[in-house]
Amino acid sequence: MTHPRANIPDNLCPVATELSGMLPGDWRAMRPVVDRDKCVKCAVCWMFCPVQCIKEMPAWFDVNYATCKGCGICANECPHRAIAMVEEPQA
Ligand code: SF4
Ligand code: SF4
Question: What is the C-alpha separation between 29 and 25, in angstroms, rounded?
Fold first, then answer.
C-alpha cells in the first residue's frame, strides 16, 4: 500500500515548507565575539550552544559564524564573561 503522501518531493519538509539555502549567518542580527585573553577553554559555551556551532581552537573556543544564529546563550552562560554580543553591520 502506498502512503497517501509518498509523492512529497524531496525538497519539501514534512510540513510542506520549501527548504531555503540560507544559513543563520545570512540573517543574524547579533554575533558573539570571544575575547581570547579571557577565554579559559572551560567549554561551557560549547555545552550550551543549541546548534553546536562553538568550535575548539588551540587556546580558546570560537564560533562558526555560518551556522551561529546569534541567540546569545553562549554569552549569557560563559562564566568568565569572555563573550560579547555585538551588532552585525547593516547591509
Ligand atoms: S564559556 Fe567562555 S571561558 Fe569557557 S570556553 Fe566558552 S568562551 Fe571560553
Ligand atoms: S549565539 Fe547562540 S548560536 Fe551562536 S554560538 Fe552562541 S549559543 Fe551558539
Answer: 9
29: cell is 542580527
CATH of domain 24-87: 3.30.70.20
Q: Which protein residue's CA is at the shortest distance from atom 2 of ligand 1?
A: 78
pLDDT tens for residues 30-78?
A: 999 999 999 999 999 999 999 999 999 999 999 999 999 999 999 999 9
Size of the chain, expressed as the number of residues it contains: 91
Separation of 51 CA from ligand 2 center, angstroms?
Answer: 7
How far apart CA 25 and CA 30 sit, in angstroms, is: 10
Task: Pick the closest to residue 70 from 48, 85, 90 (CA basis).
Answer: 85
Domain locations in the chain?
24-87
Q: Which ligand is nearest to the CA of 34?
A: 1
Cell 575575547 locates to: 35
